[in-house]
Amino acid sequence: MSVRWDVLLAILGMAAASYALRAGGYALLRATRPPPFVQSMLTYLPGCIFVAFVTPALLDAGPTRWVAAGCVVGVMLATRNYTIAILGGVAALWLLTLLPSPALSLPWPSLP
Measuring CA to CA, how many Å separate 88 from each of 58, 73, 91? Predict the structure, then answer.
């Protein structure tokens, strides 16, 4: 197996750019104080990022995953804790895949 230097340089360049952007953001927020509207916007960021990751997966999912997503919403409303809600959703999905339920194994229409 030989090393392709162009691929290695591309990977190292992307890693350096990713690190520079992340470290630059920390350095910028440490050196300056963001305005109040930016601070309030940053408090909502974890939920928005989570929704951005989950929505495309749910649009192409079957009923089992929709039921598990409903469990996540229910646990989140009850506990207001992201970690417990995610763990509850994973547990619900695991339990639902173990059950031989014909209603949850129906074919689900997929997006074109």
Answer: 17, 10, 5
